[in-house]
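Please decode residue identities from the backbone states below.
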């Protein structure tokens, strides 16, 4: 169980903390009394967030794809707080690339959405293994990495790899620590954030009815994290948990049934898919 990790005086690290889900999580954890180490490339927004929080913060500005910047995050966190019990790999971009687009487009996406998490794990997991307390790594996945809809191959591929990475991490941590240090995959639904709505101003823009707020995602995450769940797949106002399960099951059955790739969007399978989700 992870119920002792989110607790007063414990230390959490959040990448991509300046806005959206990262900022909402920082506010929630601070309200619970946690000390925070916050990382983002947006120095102004990050500093403003830290100044608004109730608990002590370590603030590091940098590029999540730069190992030197992430090393500074680790070193400053340990220098200021002396421990880390929760690490959240939240940083990400939606920048797209198709199956035959230039490798440079793919590289930018994967360095931020996938390889940054590998770097963070490389830097922080040994610290957590050496400690004698419970700890956890939380990686941000996406439903696009599970059902892999057409339209943004690089993003879907990176998030699919993040799912596999986190599953592998969870298993190895279970083997090495017998459950003292755990890993969790947080999969938001449609969320009203700057990533999904570039230039978002919450005071000026109206939230789409279908979307959850970042705070709703965080509340859902915290409840399921405390219950010890590995897969934390959030619904939203348009897609229920039951519909998510049916979409995921259909995608997995493409392999078992030897259907065409991404058959959910294949014209020959539209009726079959609709019957599946409505039964």
């Amino acid at each position: 169980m992870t119920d002792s990790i989110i607790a007063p005086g414990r230390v959490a690290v959040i990448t991509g903390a300046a806005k959206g889900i990262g900022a909402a999580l920082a506010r929630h954890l601070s309200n619970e009394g946690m000390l925070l180490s916050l990382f983002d490339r947006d120095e102004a927004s990050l500093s403003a967030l830290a100044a608004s929080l109730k608990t002590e913060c370590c603030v590091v500005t940098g590029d999540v794809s730069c190992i030197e910047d992430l090393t500074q995050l680790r070193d400053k966190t340990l220098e200021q707080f002396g421990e880390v019990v929760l690490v959240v790999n939240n940083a990400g971009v939606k920048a797209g690339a198709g199956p035959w687009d230039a490798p440079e487009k793919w590289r930018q996406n994967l360095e931020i959405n996938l390889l940054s998490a590998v770097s963070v794990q490389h830097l922080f997991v040994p610290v957590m293994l050496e400690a004698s307390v419970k700890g956890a790594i939380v990686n941000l996945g996406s439903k696009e990495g599970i059902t892999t809809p057409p339209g943004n191959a690089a993003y879907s591929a990176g998030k699919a790899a993040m799912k596999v990475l986190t599953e592998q991490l969870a298993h190895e941590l279970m083997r090495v620590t017998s459950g003292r240090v755990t890993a969790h995959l947080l999969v938001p639904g449609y969320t009203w954030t700057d990533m999904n709505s570039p230039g978002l101003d919450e005071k000026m823009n109206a939230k789409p009815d279908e979307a959850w707020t970042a705070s709703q995602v965080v509340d859902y995450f915290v409840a399921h994290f405390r219950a010890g769940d590995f897969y934390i797949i959030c619904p939203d106002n348009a897609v229920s948990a039951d519909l998510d399960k049916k979409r995921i099951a259909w995608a997995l059955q493409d392999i078992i049934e030897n259907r065409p790739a991404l058959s959910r969007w294949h014209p020959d399978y539209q009726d079959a898919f609709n019957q599946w989700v409505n039964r």
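Observation: The helical segments are 20-31, 43-52, 67-81, 103-130, 153-177, 214-226, 241-257, 270-278.
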